Amino acid sequence: MNGKRVETVRKGTPAHGPVVYWMSRDQRAADNWALLHARKDAVERKCPLGVVFCLTPDYLGATIRHYGFMLRGLEETAGRLAEKGIRFHLLTGDPAEEIPRFVVEQGVSRLVTDFSPLRIKREWERKVAERIAIPFDIVDAHNIIPCRAASPKREPAAYTFRPKVRKALPEFLTDFPPLEEHPFPWKGEAPRIDWEKERGELVVDRSVGEVSWLEPGERAARRALRDFLENRLASCYGMRNDPNRHGQSRLSPYFHFGQLAPQRAALEAQGFDDNLPALASFLEELVVRRELSDNFCFHTPDYDRFSCFPAWARETLNLHRYDLRGYLYSRQRLEEAETHDPLWNAAQTEMVRIGKMHGYLRMYWAKKILEWSASPEEALDTAIYLNDRYEMDGRDPNGYAGIAWSIGGVHDRPWPERPIFGKVRSMTFQGCRRKFDVDAYVRKVREDGRR
What we know:
The protein is an alpha/beta fold. The protein has helices spanning 33-44, 64-83, 95-106, 119-131, 147-150, 158-172, 195-201, 218-231, 233-236, 252-256, 262-269, 276-299, 311-319, 331-335, 342-354, 359-371, 376-390, 397-408, 429-435, 438-450; strands at residues 6-10, 19-23, 49-55, 87-92, 110-114, 136-139. It folds into 3 domains: 3-142, HUPs (Rossmann fold), CATH 3.40.50; 143-176 and 217-300, Serine Threonine Protein Phosphatase 5, Tetratricopeptide repeat, CATH 1.25.40; 306-450, Orthogonal Bundle (DNA Cyclobutane Dipyrimidine Photolyase, subunit A, domain 3), CATH 1.10.579. It has a 6-stranded mixed sheet with strand order 1-6-5-2-3-4, with helices on both faces. Helix 11 (262-269) packs antiparallel against helix 12 (276-299), helix 12 (276-299) packs across helix 18 (397-408) and helix 17 packs antiparallel against helix 18 (397-408). The longest helix has 24 residues, at 276-299.
């Protein structure tokens, strides 16, 4: 494994005890650099290896839609780890308290976790590092090019980030070694986890129901990847902006929950080079755009606030802060899809119903929230709230960066000035009509709701 993936946040000489991988963002047994790093250390020191996941019931507004999908995926992962002689522990509570307690109780000798650029995980890591006395490593198992290695600063746009990605890609886009059976067992009986009980007793918002169209878990993720590459990749180029056609991969929930490694997707996609424009388009989204979002959140701790917008966007939005709005909608009316715009209502309805919205419509959706809100701050808060509450891939760097692009010009440039938007790029209903059959999309959403 490339050493640039690893950041040691606490040094020390480990005692002879279990090595533990605190799984968080990358919820899989296969193709996981953090797990492989932990296993390598455990093998070298002839120690048991374990994986611990800490369930946080109030995580950034997640509902049973997200927890149910995640727990079913973790159940599969726990079984796959057991087959390799790796024990899985499920904790519940604040990770900043539960992880240090587990380290002491189990006599853990080294702690490893996976990388996330979000504030909440970085704060947990800081507190855990303060409360333990053993070596502690953070491994970027999510990005193909480790976020810290990709760029030392916040990149202003994809055109500045793309050359760095292309230069570094040959060093990091390598295949994963297989996860071998661990030869040093954890002493004592493995804890029994009643997964159905865990799902049933979890105290979370259950008003947003689980989805049936998406199967959770590592195996389902690999099947979905293979289905996309074999059946839709070749036709996705040129139709990705039409929500009436299946021109997107639909893999983002698997990436978000870490049930599929983006690096695995990139490696598999390279075998489908008979349609180079489609492959290039897919890799642009998978590598450049997705990892640019991690770069944004990592180097911008206020990634969900007005202050994160570039200076030109803050200035222009402030100049137009008090422009007359043709419509003003409360968060409740937006959530219930009660606007004058049938396209926006259909997109919002589909997101609430099935937990996904087409990528092109997500941009239109967020920009209209800016147009119909009393301030950019209110628009930003509303868009994040709705996205994180309903989208299967909510609470993700891609979501924060996408909303900041739509409302605050992040990773974009100034455009001709307009009311309300100022120089931030706008999108219109008529512009969407020129892209695709709006009426057909609205009818489809209505008909799906009657079934």
